[in-house]
Design brief:
- With about 190 residues, this protein is α+β, with helices and mostly antiparallel strands.
- It has one domain: Trna Endonuclease, Chain: A, domain 1, CATH 3.40.1350.
- It is built from 5 helices and 12 strands.
- The strands form 4 sheets. A 6-stranded mixed beta sheet has the order 1-4-5-7-8-10, sandwiched between helices. Strands 2-3 form a two-stranded antiparallel sheet.
- β11 and β12 form a beta hairpin.
- The relative contact order is 0.15.
């Protein structure tokens, strides 16, 4: 995948059957590369802002650095005139997704994107399945303040399952198209 500064980033994964063993970020990068190559959407992984303290120039190596501020969500970009931002989350838990996996500043950022009328969601991997959980449904669960984790059944009921496609990866834009068609999102 070529990033805006024209650097090619490549990914490798384990040789296993179907999509098992592929991490979620890899699948999203396949998808985003497909979208970019076919002029469908322009969505990129956001770098975490770091401050560099010490560099070994002879080895071309950063030896000491720190995070300048907490990052927001993993990916952002444009699709068909809409601003999109989302985060990729994985859990090994079978029956629930821990809310602790989404930091308070990320929850606030999701609220901000909703307020700004952008499209925001979590792409969650649970039980070797992939779901898009719309930001509004995520915030509704958080605001209900009934649990410290989202039950798997809530994710299955409110979320939209994605199936791995060899060419497209995890085609999450088909879910966004459905939400737009249902009137969840409107253009400004």
């Amino acid at each position: 995948m070529f990033y805006p500064n024209n650097i090619k980033k490549t990914y490798t994964t384990k040789n296993t059957h179907a999509n098992r063993g592929m991490d979620l970020e890899y699948l999203i990068e396949i998808t985003n590369e497909y979208y970019l190559d076919h002029d469908i959407a322009y969505i990129y992984k956001k770098p975490t802002p770091i401050g560099i303290v010490k560099v070994n120039y002879s080895l071309k190596k950063i030896e000491e650095a720190y995070f300048q501020k907490a990052s927001t969500l993993d990916y952002n970009g444009l699709y068909n005139g809409y601003y999109i931002e989302f985060d990729a989350k994985e859990t090994k838990k079978k029956n629930y997704f821990p809310l602790a996996n989404v930091h308070p500043h990320q929850i606030q950022h999701i609220r901000n994107i909703i307020k700004g009328k952008g499209i925001v969601f979590l792409l969650i991997m649970i039980n070797d399945e992939y779901y898009v959980l719309n930001g509004q449904d995520f915030i509704a669960f958080v605001d209900a303040d009934t649990r410290k984790s989202i039950p798997y059944e809530y994710i299955k009921t409110k979320g939209y399952e994605l199936k791995y496609n060899f060419n497209k990866g995890l085609d999450y834009l088909k879910v966004i198209d459905k939400l737009i068609g249902d009137g969840i999102y409107e253009k400004n």
